[in-house]
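Attaching the record inline, Q. Sequence:
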Amino acid sequence: MHRFEPCLNFIAGEWREPSTGQYGQNVNPANGEVLGLWARSGPGDLDLAVRAAREAQASWRLVPAPERAKVLRRVADLLRDRKEELARTLTMEMGKVIAEARGEVQEAIDMAEYMAGEGRRLFGQTTPSELPDKFAMSVRAPVGVVGIITPWNFPIAIASWKSLPAIVAGNAVVWKPAEETPLLARAFAQIYQEAGLPPGVLNVVFGDGPVVGEAMLDHPGIDVISFTGSTETGRHIASRAGANLKRVSLEMGGKNAITVLADADLDLAVDAILWSAYGTSGQRCTAASRVIVERAAEAELLARLVPRVEALRVGDGLDPSIDVGPVIHEEALNKIDGYVRIGVDEGARLVTGGRRLTEGPLARGFYYAPTVFAGVQPDMRIAQEEIFGPVLSVIAVDSFEEAIQVNNGVRYGLSASVFTRDVNRVFRAMRDLDTGIVYVNAGTTGAEIHLPFGGTKATGNGHRDSGQAALDVFTEWKTVYVDYSGRLQRAQIDNN
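Structure, as predicted:
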């Protein structure tokens, strides 16, 4: 028997079985237990959801934004009331340790509260006109129907980043959650429903990416696609959706580095490296998979770091004593182990880890030992490609300038960190690091919801999640001129 009822599609305020009659299994990565089933939908299910969204959006856009915001405040309250329940479900579905799961739910709470405030802001601009007796302004208008595609590693936080600003701005949403985390998606949809969101403003369609995701890219009723996931998938989405003239927002991969200069507080740096590299088992787009260290500090940094890595406790994240949980599934485990073999073949020195963990109860789940490579060269594949697991590459450099060059010498540009006591180097790093997020004397993770989140190069396509910047994805600028002169006035002609 399954522990939970099947996760059905949520369309026009109703829970519906998939037209295909097919379901997929939801598996706990910590122990292989089948938690339940999720609807393996088809294009027809998506079409129903889009039709419901378009119908609902026609009236939702006319609801005053402060009234829309009241729903978001109730969402925040319900998330807060159910924080522990949601966190435990999150840990069971994707494996992150319970403290991190609580933090992720808190991020959704914070986002709901912040975006509720936007219901009374959503600011436009007023400007002087160049002509007499004429008024000029710009206002934000909803785009229409937003399609969001979210990943399994932050199943409720990233969904909140995308759905909340879209909804408060007057759009309707069609959401395809990751197949690995359907319970969190269902719970979030139930919270929206209980908060009083009108039927059809949020719709959830479960399904495989190549089926439901592809149908979203082609559906003429979807105006915006907001995606978080791999760069390869994002490139395909940009090409396909762009051909259909859809607005596309992409948040993709990272190969983030913590730079440790010789004058750094090494104990603080080690704390940050442990959290950034092995939190969420390295399955974060902001995870630190590289440490760039000035050669003078390399030996001492490794001497302090490696024992701490080897002391990390690996296991089921529901146990509060555990530091590192499982990775998401067997495919991920194989990919991580494959990259470790690549690193060894490239000549990097495997300092610790580098193996699957199968002892005792760990044999039932997908566990990988926290891993450290030293002697890594900047052009090695393990220093260039996103591994998405608990694998850290330590790269020694001879100068601050070389550290900046190595940091920027990858195709991604999400997050970067620098540890130093030299304020001059701090400001140079802030200027020269080619990433969307820069941390000083902190790790590469820990973004706050009221600031833009996203990156440069192959990490994104110029848009940002979170903060006011998120509204740019989900609104159109409308410019309005009001001429009260009572006569025809021609800009650029009658005033010259």
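The chain has two domains: 9-252, 256-440. Residues 256-440 form a domain with the Aldehyde Dehydrogenase; Chain A, domain 2 fold (CATH 3.40.309.10).

More tomorrow.
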